[in-house]
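Before the break, one more example. Copy the sequence into your notebook; we will annotate it together after we see the structure.
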Amino acid sequence: MLSGEKQERTERLLDRRTPYVRWSFYLLWVCLVLLAVLAAGVGYLGFMSSRTPVRTALHGITGEQRRDLAGKLLSAGLPDKAIEQYELYLEESAIPADRKANIAFTIGKLHMEQGRYEDALSWLYRVEMLDPATQLGPEVGSKIVACLERLGRYAQAQFSLDARSNLDRAKTDESKGDQVVARIGQDAVTLQELLGAIDALPDWMRASLEDPGRKEAFLNQYVAEELLYRKARKLELDKDPRIRKQSEMALRQLLVKKVLEEEIRDKAKISAEDVALYFKANQDRYQEKEAYKIRFMRVGENQLNEVMAALRKGADFASLARSRSLDEATRDKGGEIQEWIERGLDPTGIGDPERLWQTLSALGKPGIAEPVKTPQGDCVFQIVSRRPERLPSLEEAKQRVEQDLYQERIEKAYKGLVEQALQASDVKVFPEVLRGAQAGEKTESESSGSTSTGRSEDATEPPSNPGSESSSEDAP
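Here is what the structure looks like once it is written out:
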């Protein structure tokens, strides 16, 4: 009886322990799983954090050294390798956004130079995202438009160009507050823009616009040209292959001119000592020849004696020329010839320079020379002054000497630059091909001409109209 009660009590105790053991077992497994997950996470983080040091250690360089390496690779003519290092530099280095934007612009520009316009666009757009206020904005915009055009996406390029132009124009009007001299729809033409256009003109044209009236006329012309330009864009004339080719050639010439200015500027510098030595070595070039300043009139044969008599009595030559001269070019100026007359020159138009010189040199001093008969009338000359042959001083000829020396050095530097460029590059010139092509064109032209006329080689050109052929054969 007792043993049965004892067994029953034992079973009740076991039933109370079973849930406790079961839950402890479950809790143990949960802890083990959490520990395993935590260990795996720690291992993964350790692995990821060790990737960059391992790669850096393999290359043996740091972030800034990598940027320097990219610059050296670029200088060595290895743009693709340079791009690779720039990309690694951006990935590894913690640098400000503006510097990241500059590196992205460099990468985009290198892709563009290699003709990879899609890759270039990817990096150029990234520049604006990294630094919206970047100072590279205008240049980035122009390169984005150029890439789109090279990819044949002209509509996107036009849209981008218009959007950027409108944004830039609004910013300019707002930030600079410039005076508006004209409006085309909602677009303002500012005074600064107009003055910039004037500054781009040649010196002689810019000087003519100092008059306020002419400047107003230029404003009207500038606005009219802008309207015509917009019309051409609407007609899509800018997409004409011939226009694009001409634009490329014009840009080519501008860039070549800029390179020449940069390369030649230092080589063309001249000093006062250079000018003095050049003048001494080229004195014959600056030697002033004997020359005369004169007045002249042409009169009718029946008036010559009357005019000469009046001059001998002391009449004023200029007054007589204004009232009696038949030469319209000099009559209103009293017969004055402004330039010095040297031997071989004939600004009077008598048609015989040597005869004019002999007439003037026979007198050789201020006074009235002997008249000269010409088919147009009798010519009377007054020598106003004589300039003897002499060598001017360096100070007198300095401006001309400086111009000659500068021009000579420019030409020499240009020739040397061209020769250096041809020697330093992998260039082969085949002039014989050009000569052969020219000879072929000439032969073809002669052959076609002979065929078209149907005459022998010694035949004359065909008459201008069929009806004259018979009369040309009878002509002596």
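Residues 51-58, 170-177, 450-476 have pLDDT under 50 and may be disordered. The two ends are 171 Å apart (CA to CA). Try to locate both features in your own notes.
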